[in-house]
Design brief:
The chain has about 300 residues and is an all-alpha fold. It has helices spanning about 5-35, 55-60, 60-95, 105-110, 115, 120-130, 135-145, 160-185, 190-200, 205-230, 235-240, 250-260, 265-295, and strands at about 40, 45-50. Strand 1 and strand 2 (about 45-50) form a beta hairpin. The longest helix is centred in the N-terminal third of the chain and has 33 residues, at about 60-95.
């Protein structure tokens, strides 16, 4: 074993993980793809191969396009807010804008992880109470501040419901982004900041010339994971709104769930999930290519 090359050792080390992925991920994905090529409705005893007919039907399904628009909007807004807020939290936890650590940073690191530790279903229930039009804290605070005169039905109005779901998701997952970015900040040599201070660089110049360029790999990692999670969001939104009102918060995951388990259209529902998988794979590939290029230039 000692005579193995570095490449051979890498293959030996990743083989168990790849085997587990093949059993628990690749095989179910292939089964879903195969099922998407069938018309399968057990309730009517229908099970026949129809090729790409399900995918052709998807292109003409207005509800699929509406769910895709909702999912894309949810992903874009939530990920942008999470990365921006997570970067701010990471900078504060690292030691402030001047990067000097103090005793308050340790407490901040602990506090900022609390929302992430709460399960998604529990978070959704908590925010459902907070959004209550008559007894919720959100309306109470806005009314006390003079922002609103009448209660807002956050989860009962199509315009507000999607943004209420986004706010809950941002609160829940921003700590994840902050944690990854904080780890990225710790990889930046402290000598660079010391040299910048000696040269008289301002905080903004230090951030723009040193922190941000060297933090790009961590930012791309956060974007990759959070985009994947946000695009396939299900549990939090489903518990909070159930996809309503009027399907205004129905994401592709929720639509696929309803198709598979409410109407028992296993073939068509599998086609929806397969399309989701392909979209997420393409977006992830773009991020990974950008990350690889960035690392090659470093």
């Amino acid at each position: 074993m000692s005579g193995l090359s570095e490449h051979s050792w890498a293959i030996v080390c990743v083989t168990p993980a790849l085997s587990l992925l093949a059993v628990f991920a690749a095989i179910p994905i292939l089964q879903a793809v195969w099922l998407s090529l069938h018309a399968r409705l057990p309730m009517f005893g229908i099970d026949r191969f129809i090729g790409l007919a399900n995918y052709q039907a998807l292109l003409q399904d207005a509800r699929v396009w509406a769910a895709f628009g909702t999912t894309a909007y949810f992903t874009a807004v939530s990920v942008a807010l999470e990365v921006g807020l997570g970067l701010g939290m990471a900078l504060l936890a690292y030691g402030g804008s001047d990067f000097r650590r103090g005793p308050q940073t340790s407490a901040l690191r602990v506090i900022m992880l609390v929302p992430w530790a709460v399960p998604s279903v529990v978070s959704a229930r908590i925010w459902e109470w907070l959004y209550h039009p008559d007894y919720g804290v959100v309306n109470y605070l806005l009314s006390a501040a003079g922002v609103i005169e009448h209660p807002i039905y956050w989860l009962g109005t199509p315009t507000w419901s999607i943004h209420a779901a986004i706010l809950m998701d941002v609160w829940k997952t921003t700590p994840f982004a902050a944690l990854i970015l904080l780890a990225g900040l710790h990889t930046i040599p402290e000598e660079l900041y010391q040299a910048a201070r000696v040269d008289g660089a301002s905080g903004w110049q230090t951030f723009r010339r040193i922190t941000l360029p060297l933090l790009w790999p961590a930012l791309l990692i956060v974007l990759t994971f959070r985009t994947m999670d946000a695009f396939r969001v299900f549990d939090a939104v489903y518990v909070l709104t159930g996809g309503g009102p009027g399907n205004s918060t129905e994401t592709l995951s929720i639509y696929a769930y309803k198709t598979l388990f409410h109407t028992l259209q296993f073939g068509y529902g599998s086609a929806v999930t397969t399309v989701m998988f392909l979209i997420v794979s393409c977006v992830t590939a773009v991020y990974l290519l950008a990350l690889r290029r960035r690392l090659e230039l470093a």
